[in-house]
Amino acid sequence: MHRLTIWAPEGLPEIVAGTDLGVAIGDLLAAQEPADRPAEGDVVVVTSKIVSKAEGQVVAAADREQAITDETVRVVATRERPDGPPLRIVENRLGLVMAAAGVDASNTPEGTVLLLPKDPDASARALRAALRARFGLDRLGVVVTDTAGRPWRAALVDIAIGAAGIAPADDLRGGTDTHGRPLNVTVTAVVDEIASATELVRGKATGRAVAVVRGADRHLSDDDGPGAATLVRTGPEDLFREGSREAYDRGRADALKPLGHAAT
Amino acid sequence: MHRLTIWAPEGLPEIVAGTDLGVAIGDLLAAQEPADRPAEGDVVVVTSKIVSKAEGQVVAAADREQAITDETVRVVATRERPDGPPLRIVENRLGLVMAAAGVDASNTPEGTVLLLPKDPDASARALRAALRARFGLDRLGVVVTDTAGRPWRAALVDIAIGAAGIAPADDLRGGTDTHGRPLNVTVTAVVDEIASATELVRGKATGRAVAVVRGADRHLSDDDGPGAATLVRTGPEDLFREGSREAYDRGRADALKPLGHAAT
């Protein structure tokens, strides 16, 4: 029977700047029943929040808007809001397009906001090394998750912003479907699906920042692999590089410039 | 321990137009070991492909481009391709924004393409009724999945296009985070995460079109609920209602019209 199991233990202590995350997570997992400790083929999934906290990626909340500005590489779209500063959807320094550049005001002490980790793929690699050593494992994946909205759909899902020891995407191109036809375009974002799956067990308001996934071992790699950065898809080919309103306004402005008309 | 388990049995027969899906899936699940048959609190997840096949939502492949046109309510963005007709990202009749309007040329006999189900929420409700009766269950969720790309990220994930007996989103607004602060914006697309999670077990080229999820019972509802259609988020407020190039071109054209200039 094809089966996947995900579990998320309680009891991770508060993570603060300087916490050795590999030790803290290793301790948490070592304290579980033997069957719930990491084994060959498992994927350990952690929220970016605890990675950020351990790295000290925390700034004062009064500077939230400035923090968003600082994390912004490129503004994609904005929307005025009656009850606050404009919503900004931006490309951040990790290439991720997100509301508020991924700056997070929840699950962090009052008066602070969390920035995203400096390099979540590197954090995933470090965590993988620590946990492989701790538990004596060869094949172990690590995924670092964050929460994001998406165009055309309400509500949020978790995605992978860091990954090590696991192929980020399951490339079936070259394979065939059940009718023997070539699968040309079916590339599955495995680590995003893993992130979403674990969110169902971790939750948001729970303090369960670590989960283990068993049954996805066919996606694991012997090396660290290319990381979740390979799922970033921005650049001049991006069909949604700008919000519709921003692109429209720019079209108007560009049309009127050579004619000496100001855009109104 | 917070735990989620997902399994996907083999052995669903080929589904064709007129197949009673409730019976076919019921038979499949009834043939499993007792622990793997649906129980109170489970969610049964099925691909839209088998729903489409059972409904006869199949058209001739030669008409794939026409089928896409017929399923299109509104073109969002297009991109020329050197080796085929332009890629069209469109809003289809279900409000879903997808490449090729969700018309599917894989996992269907040569010479045919699959359209999306006529009403996946209704299909979910019918399936829920059939399986509740078959297995004597009060609390059972059903989710119908499809595969979709997303802006700014490579590769595809599964999402929910139909749902019954389960809250589509986990609305934590009004709750508090681990620091006691109000969670104002954290609404999780639970059924999309369930769809993604099951894809890890179903796969694409496998014929495993049905999965069961155990451990998500807190999301279940006693009634059918509003369905996955509530996750559709389009309309005039949509910041990405048009592709950037389309919006830019329209801005240029609109700027030049009153001046009597043709847009070049």
UniProtKB/TrEMBL annotation, chains A, B:
The species this protein was found in: Myceligenerans crystallogenes
Matching NCBIfam families: F420_cofE
Family annotation (InterPro entries): F420-0_g-glutamyl_ligase, F420-0_gamma-glut_ligase-dom
Keywords from the UniProt entry: GTP-binding, Ligase, Magnesium, Manganese, Metal-binding, Nucleotide-binding, Potassium
Gene3D superfamilies for the chain: CofE-like
Name used for this protein in its record: Coenzyme F420:L-glutamate ligase-like domain-containing protein
Pfam families reported for this sequence: F420_ligase
Record-annotated Coenzyme F420:L-glutamate ligase-like domain positions: 12-215
